[in-house]
Write a structure and sequence with these properties.
Oligomer: single chain
Helix content: 25-40%
Strand order of the largest sheet: 3-2-1-4-5-6
Keywords: Magnesium, Metal-binding, Nucleotide-binding, Nucleotidyltransferase, RNA-binding, Transferase, tRNA processing
Protein name: DDH domain-containing protein
Radius of gyration: 17 Å
GO molecular function: metal ion binding; nucleotide binding; nucleotidyltransferase activity; RNA binding
Largest sheet: 6 strands, parallel
Order of helices and strands: HHHEHEHEEEEH
Shape: globular
Pfam families: DHH
Distance between the termini: 18 Å
CATH class of one domain: Alpha Beta
Organism: Emiliania huxleyi
Structural class: alpha/beta
CATH topology of one domain: inorganic pyrophosphatase (n-terminal core)
Low-confidence stretches: 15-37, 39-51, 197-207
Mean pLDDT: 80
CATH architecture of one domain: Alpha-Beta Complex
Length: 207
């Protein structure tokens, strides 16, 4: 059976995602509530650390504010897609402001597996391409909305067909499916199919 779109998106990040948990995961799963709170605080602190003065050209994929699992998985999928379509510079996932409590707990354990960067670690002058997932409006991007004016290329991927986009874009993909993740996973699967047998080890990360 085909994996769910969200599972597929996270699996596509690399070989370590599904086959095994991170080292020490059993102990982590037994961590106390206090330990989990400490992990969440450490995550927030790392997200707030400023970047250095040197230029770091990059692409960024933005979730909407109060990130949920659909926007996170869709952003990860687009970052993976761009790592092959736009390999000249790295692509990071940025959550502009706030996350769903369940997503925060998930990231406390698994952020190191994902291409996530803190909002304040990105210098807007370094931006090349910006992707927006699971929304079509600037208002839902919080403080990151101004980044749209800094990038040379803006792509929007969404599944809310009844909304009216107000983001100036170079690429707009809106499909009437159940999730934004599905939109991006379909593109990932097309990429995997296009590269044929090489997709198993080189693109998908599975042996």
């Amino acid at each position: 059976e085909s994996p769910s779109p969200m599972l597929f998106a996270f699996w596509a990040v690399g070989p370590s995602w599904l086959p095994s948990a991170p080292t020490g995961a059993p102990q982590t799963r037994r961590a106390s509530r206090a330990s989990r709170s400490s992990a969440a605080r450490a995550l927030a602190k790392s997200a707030a650390e400023p970047s250095g003065d040197h230029a770091e050209p990059c692409n960024v994929v933005l979730t909407h504010t109060n990130t949920d699992f659909d926007s996170l998985a869709a952003a990860v999928a687009l970052a993976r897609l761009w790592s092959y379509q736009r390999p000249e510079v790295p692509t990071h996932v940025v959550m502009p402001r706030g996350v769903n409590p369940l997503v925060a707990r998930f990231l406390a354990y698994h952020k190191h597996l994902l291409p996530v960067r803190g909002f304040s670690t990105i210098n807007p002058s370094d931006l090349r391409a910006v992707g927006v997932v699971d929304t079509q409006t600037r208002e839902r991007l919080g403080p990151a909305a101004r980044w749209l004016d800094c990038a040379s290329y803006v792509a929007v991927y969404d599944h809310h067909v009844d909304n009216t986009p107000n983001i100036q874009h170079d690429e707009l993909v809106i499909e009437p499916v159940g999730s934004a993740t599905t939109v991006l996973v379909e593109k990932l699967r097309a990429l995997f199919d296009a590269v044929g047998g090489a997709a198993g080890g080189g693109v998908g990360g599975a042996a």
